[in-house]
Amino acid sequence: MANYIDEKFYALIKEFEKNEFYNIYKHMVQIFKHIPLATQDSLEKYFNKYPYWGKFNTKQENYEVYFKKAKVFKENFQEYVWLYENLNDYRSKFLLFSILNNFYNFDFQSLRNATDNIFKQYFELDLLPTCKDEVFVDVGSYIGDSVRDFVNSYGKGSYKKIYCYEITKSIISQSKKNLADLENIEFRNKAIANNNGELFVQENANSLSANMATNTGKEKIESVKLDDDIKEPVSIIKMDIEGGEQNAIRGSVNHIEKDLPKLFLSVYHNNTDLFEIPRMITNITQNYNLYLRYYGGCVYPTEIVLICLPKQN
To answer: Do 161 and 83 fall within a single domain?
Structure first.
């Protein structure tokens, strides 16, 4: 017998399955127009500040963000079912339902209920209670906040080496200052990708944290495969690189397959990462348990993290 989370999830999937694409899109736009005006304005500003998911302009009736999401729902509802059935706990399953129901029905309450306010982002003590002598690779280390959270969660004896990859030079300088009290940290001004060569740093006008490595631009950055840039076995990989996660994973296949590192992967920077990245990991190896955790706000789902833990753990 299904529980209430199963019932809610499969009922939502049935909506995607039975309705035509345009009806899914029209439903989303109609619901959007009935939420408070302040929330509408907040969403529009956010989508224009961080244009990962499409264009958005209410005055021009341009709702490309929801047009694209409706298309993904219709064409990939079976992928969401696959993900749901492969998640390893009901916290993860409820979160997946809450994310999709937020997109489709602007359900803010379920997303609020699914938010993790207990542990530091990425480092869930109920899933990973202890760490020792880890080789931790932080891809998209920014100002060192995740490294600091890791050490605060598990202690200074939790690692033997930390690699911090960051594409913005000024951010690396700040990170070095922030982590000056910690030993055995190596900072690398490189982009992790699926090949060795060069990319360009595309700056975000609103936040340096949203800088991206792209194929065109002015400021060059060396791109490397993680498999080639780190030769020793690694035990933790965290990735938050503004939509570059899939290419970075392609450049890390050998480490993932051979080392089975604990993985903490951002899966919200486009409309398909939520199911495509778990598929990528399970195609590399079947030896992971999959979890989803959420650290964002209740209006629009960001800061969604896929946690992959080796089954022997």
So the answer is: no
Looking at the chain, the number of H-run helices and the number of E-run strands are 12, 11
Q: How far apart are CA 205 and CA 201, in angstroms?
A: 12
| All residues at 6 or more sequence positions from 173 whose CB lies less than 8 Å from its CB, including other chains | none
Pick from 238, 241, 175: nearest CA to 210: 241
Along the chain (313 residues), what's the average pLDDT of each consecutive run of 10 residues? 91 97 98 97 95 94 97 98 98 98 97 95 96 97 96 96 94 95 96 91 71 79 95 97 93 97 97 98 98 96 97 75
Q: What is the pTM of this model?
A: 0.95
Domain count for the chain: 2
Closest residue by Cα to residue 245 from 272, 218, 222: 272
* Token couple for 241: 């690189």
Q: DSSP for 44-109, please give it.
A: HHHHHHSTTS---BTTTTB-HHHHHHHHHHHHHHHHHHHHHHHBSSHHHHHHHHHHHHHHHH--HH
Q: What is the DSSP string of 183-214?
A: SSEEEE--EE-SSSEEEEEE--SS-GGG-EEE
**Predicted local distance difference test score (pLDDT) of residue 45:** 96
CB 294 within 8 A of CB 111: yes
Distance from C-alpha of 304 to C-alpha of 52, rounded to nearest angstrom: 14
Residues 108 and 138 in one domain: no
Closest of 13, 45, 8 to residue 299, by C-alpha? 45
Shared domain check, 15 and 71? yes
Which is nearest to 281 in space by CA: 307, 313, 243?
A: 307
**Which domain range does residue 24 map to?**
4-114
CA–CA gap between residue 13 and residue 58 (Å, rounded):
28
